[in-house]
Amino acid sequence: MIYAVIDTNVLVSALFTNNTEAATVKVLEAMLHGRIIPLYNEEIFDEYEDVLNRSKFHFSKMMVGQYLEIIYERGIRCERVVCDDFFPDPKDVVFYEVALSKDDAYLVTGNIKHFPKAPIVVTPAEMMQILEREG
Of 6, 34, 72, 121, which sits most exposed with the smallest number of CB within 10 A? Predict the structure, then answer.
């Protein structure tokens, strides 16, 4: 099993696409099957709830509620580890700092250029490669 902070854009992409082979969908499936243990804190969880419930996405409230419940129940609540790195968007810092809170954890994002160049920051496709190597 792998520990990872899942960026909100990965969840939105996974729920929005009809492509069942998309890497974002595979990351979500891995989380649902316990291969990825999500890491979060209250700020991240609140963002998930806010973004996934935006009317522009037309996601059903029941579906969003089910995914949030899975993240809350199967995930691990973590504290931020303060870092001094530069972030173009200050709202992204929390995702990186929570990923730093657990050894060998990753941050899975579709926007890697918003984060420091670090081995823990991976795309959904890279996360799938990591999962394949882990067996």
Answer: 34
